[in-house]
Amino acid sequence: MNPLLVRSENTERMLNLRRKISNHLVTALAVVATLVVLVPLIAILGYLLYKGFSSLNLAFFTKPPAPVGEEGGGMANAIVGSGVILALASAMGIPLGIGAGVYLAEYGRGTWLATAIRFTADVLNGVPSIVMGIAAYSLIVAKQHHFSGFAGGVALAIMMVPTITRTTEEMLGTVPQMVREAALGLGIPKWRTVISISLRTASPGIITGCMLAFARVAGETAPLLFTALGNQFFGVNLNQPMAALPLQIFAYAVSPYDEWHRLAWAGALVLIVMIMVSVTLVRIFTARGALKGGQH
Amino acid sequence: MNEPNLISLPPTPVAQSVSPENPTGAPDLPPPAPSAIRKFLNSKSSGRVPDGAFRGLMFVCALSIFLIVLLILFVLISSSKLSIHTFGFKFFTGTTWDPVSGDFGALPFIYGTVVSSLLAVAMAVPLALLVAIFLLEICPQFLRGPISFLTELLAAIPSVVYGLWGVFVLVPIIRDQAGPVLEKYLGWTGFFVEPNFGVGMFAASVILAIMIFPVISSISRDVMRVVPPSQREAALALGATRWEMIRISILRNSRIGIVGSVILGLGRALGETLAVTMVIGNHPDIMKNLFAPAYTLSSVIANEFTEATGDLYLSALIEIGLALFLVTIVVNAIARLLVWAVTRNNSAVAH
């Protein structure tokens, strides 16, 4: 610090000027960076809306794909297939994820086992989706000797679990201990306390977590590539290869036909709208949860 | 509370009148109108058995997370056994990928994955940190919500849609507009050399950078946010400018967590499949030129898995998946530990 004190007034002024300039420079850089980041986002969304809306029509929602070279056709089978696969994945993934979260928050708090499970969940969350696809392939498709919507559902369910577990745990952590003690003090058994008091109180946040997980897997293509495989026809049989919206978008995007590119854009728009709607609902739920959560 | 005697306690005077028919001294009252809670408590479900069963069920759910990871590992190892035995470690150093002659080496894919991910991280990190700083320290309050919502929207767009946009918008831009400029000014480095078809390593890393940006930005913002306000105030009180305050008290205190967020982004980039597959050109070559097509671990699986003929081919692809699994697990574990270290320390400070 001493050299600073003996500096002449002039150097000090220079130094201050440099500090001010670097301050403004960084501020400007941060603003520019934000603008730069917003550009691709707006470009992607704008282009998607433009291309998607101009290609969207009623047939898209009601008709299965037309053969190559024929005009028209839609992705009705893919929308239905996605719905079925996602419903299956949610039916398996959500209870499992919530159960694990309940264990971590209500029973395992502070134990090494809970820490290990929490850590495993975080790590599982980062496993590439294509690896889930291979695992589901080797576990189910290779054993059954045929592709199936069921295998796709399993792969997506596994991907949902870690997100749901971690949000459930975090949300249960915000439930005040007093509320639990009040229930237990009335002689209500622990399991009933967990279900009717803890889970009920934390439900907005838990629903948020489930929808985030849902939104994430709704757009996943890689785990479905060699499990659900895709299908040109209508079908809700889980034992058969099944079409899914992301799969169909992928197949059409890499195809050489303009008509199929058009359908891919329309599919992408429908997929995004699906996801955006759930994300927006999440926002509404979180806002409400935050209001409820402010009891401290 | 309109019904104070939900679980009605026996009034004490009654307990004294012990009658011969009631030797235990229990109250000799007409039974109280059973309340909902009492009914519940008297029913079977309040016993010890359902409590244990519920706990056990939750425990099984939690344990299943372990089991899932172990199962994936086991399945991947057992289905790639053939390839592991045939090639050994040479699998990861071999440069030929020839399904016809049955010679499989994964080095070009490893190269493609590592280079595209590192480039993406190099592009995304400065932007992500600047945006995080902007949103935390500079941005006016009314813009904070919309901008952070918009950047989070980037995370909600599915991979396949990024790919679609990449194929029809980004690739033409790189081919026709950005490419010639880069070649003119940076061509001498050898990284940007014609021929440039748009698809290739460069397009893939740009797409990846856009995709991992929200991860890095939002997590590093979370880490920066837990820096105690006293640290900021101390720096400002000493006369620091805003940038000096950010550097001294925010970035220095949260550096470990920021590194963690960057590694998490790297982990995401390493495993990203669809968008990369659609724009990287899918050609297993190791080239210095970033305009040249390349191939990644995940995209070779995506492209060739369903067409793999023969057990060796399939098991080689599954071994690639195994490698990807192990690498991302290690990368994510390191990142999580770093992020945890920071948030735990700081929450201790905050108390």
Can you describe what's shown?
The complex is a heterodimer of chains A (296) and B (351). Chain A has 296 residues and is mostly helical. Chain A has helices at residues 2-6, 9-55, 58-62, 76-107, 112-125, 129-144, 149-173, 177-185, 190-218, 222-225, 245-253, 258-293. Chain A is built from 12 helices and no strands. Chain A is flat. The two termini of chain A are 45 Å apart. Residues 290-296 of chain A have low confidence and may be disordered. Chain B contains 13 helices and 2 strands; from the N terminus they run ααααββααααααααα. Chain B has helices spanning 12-16, 36-42, 48-79, 81-87, 107-138, 141-156, 159-186, 201-225, 229-237, 242-271, 274-279, 297-304, 311-350; strands at 97-98, 103-104. Chain B has a two-stranded antiparallel ribbon. In chain B, 43% of the residues are buried. At the A-B interface, helix 2, helix 4, helix 5, helix 6 and helix 7 of A face helix 2, helix 3, helix 5, helix 6 and helix 7 of B.
CATH superfamily of the largest domain in chain B: MetI-like
| Tally of discrete structural domains of chain A | 2
In this structure, how is the largest beta sheet of chain A organized?
none
Fraction in beta strands of chain B: under 5%
Give the helices and strands of chain A as they follow along the chain: HHHHHHHHHHHH
Low-confidence stretches of chain A: 290-296
Helix content of chain B: 55-70%
Mean pLDDT reading of chain A: 84
SSE layout:
The complex is a heterodimer of chains A (296) and B (351).
Chain A: H1 2-6, H2 9-55, H3 58-62, H4 76-107, H5 112-125, H6 129-144, H7 149-173, H8 177-185, H9 190-218, H10 222-225, H11 245-253, H12 258-293
Helix pairs in contact in A: 2-12, 4-7, 4-9, 4-11, 5-7, 6-7, 7-9, 8-9, 9-12, 11-12
Chain B: H1 12-16, H2 36-42, H3 48-79, H4 81-87, E1 97-98, E2 103-104, H5 107-138, H6 141-156, H7 159-186, H8 201-225, H9 229-237, H10 242-271, H11 274-279, H12 297-304, H13 311-350
Antiparallel strand pairs in B: 1-2
